[in-house]
Design brief:
single chain; TIM Barrel; 8-stranded parallel β-barrel; globular; binds pyridoxal-5'-phosphate; binds lysine; Diaminopimelate decarboxylase; lysine biosynthesis; Ala_racemase/Decarboxylase_C; diaminopimelate decarboxylase activity; lyase
Amino acid sequence: MDYFNYRDGVLYAEDVPLSRIANEHGTPCYVYSKATFERHFRAYTEALGSHPHLICYAVKANSNLAVLGLLAKLGAGFDIVSIGELERVLKAGGDPAKVVFSGVAKQPHEMVRALDVGIKCFNVESRPELERLNRVAGEQGKVAPVSLRVNPDVDAGTHPYISTGLKDNKFGISIDEALAAYELAASLPNLQVKGLDCHIGSQLTETAPFLDALERLLVLMERLRERGIEIDHLDLGGGLGVTYRDEKPPQPFDYASQLLARLSRWEGGEALTLLFEPGRSIAANAGVMLTRVEFLKPGETKNFAIVDAAMNDLIRPALYQAWQAIVPVDTREARETALYDVVGPVCETGDFLGKERELSIAEGDLLAVRSAGAYGFVMASNYNSRPRAAELMVDGDSCHVVRARETVASLWAGEALLPEGER
Ligand SMILES: Cc1ncc(COP(=O)(O)O)c(C=O)c1O
Ligand SMILES: N[C@@H](CCCC[NH3+])C(=O)O
């Protein structure tokens, strides 16, 4: 459920018509709904109820400071994958003691900073990374809290580029080697084993793979127990899918109930703190991208709607053939209906936002690409020297610029011509 709805033929974000935002701030731009972020975050906390838990929002999905700030205020923790994300969380007022640090190659300087601010846990993804963290923590005179990210080899049934829990994927320590890796972690003087972590993929539309993974992790936890290695928290990662088109993913409530039911049958399960790292399920349907139709270009085999947003603004369709709804913002005037490929101005054949979409539009019309709050702006680039779009946050009947549109001049900040005579 989100707060983007039509009223009298015009699409609104909460109480603000999107046409007004486009007229005031230009296009392309990203528009987020504060109430939707809050609602999606609360769906997790309410689903877990009194079971000990921490929801660590996956910063990579949407790292806008305003988004992080509002989630921090709701008590969120954060899942980060770089020092850049850590600094954003701190800048937004996030609590470092609620931060978990994922990623396959954390650099020593990133470990130092994370130890310095006192994060909750490092999700370690390999044996060499354990050794590196032990060395860095020792040099800092600190003990690093660790979980091992275990790759349980379950098929999440998702797009191959966003599946992470199979043997073929680069992520995590294989479940067969996990026991030995935990023994290594427990033996290293500057590490303290805190948890067990897994993340099997993104945009999952069934609970079965999560439950399969849990089953395998529980077996591993039994083995660890036998060896005297106790786990304080179990981090099940993110991955819950959203509705882009007609998917019917489980809601956090269904997902959590099934996990809690299984855990209640496991000794100690009721006291085990659960961590989740949701990104997409909190952010995707809390945002849209607005774009204006530049030209309609009828062709012999295809009609093109050329819009002012491109693959550099929203790369998901080009990269994963992802389908996101594209809808007119103002439907009050009658238009002819036709099938269009909605494409951008970038010089690539793969520059499209949607293919074969039935749309009733004219030049100058405003379109909203829905479900764009996650992996939208964060994956934008300056390809073709295009400044990145503005980001706006609607809160009731007000709208705030939460990141200004880039200027052309800002694109060459940090670049230099070769000195005179060497050009
Ligand atoms: C380690 C980790 N945690 C959390 C997430 C967030 O996933 P999602 O946006 O699917 O919830 C990802 C991305 O897939 C990830 O790699
Ligand atoms: N960027 C991907 C999701 C990646 C998940 C991160 N591990 C998407 O847009 O669907």
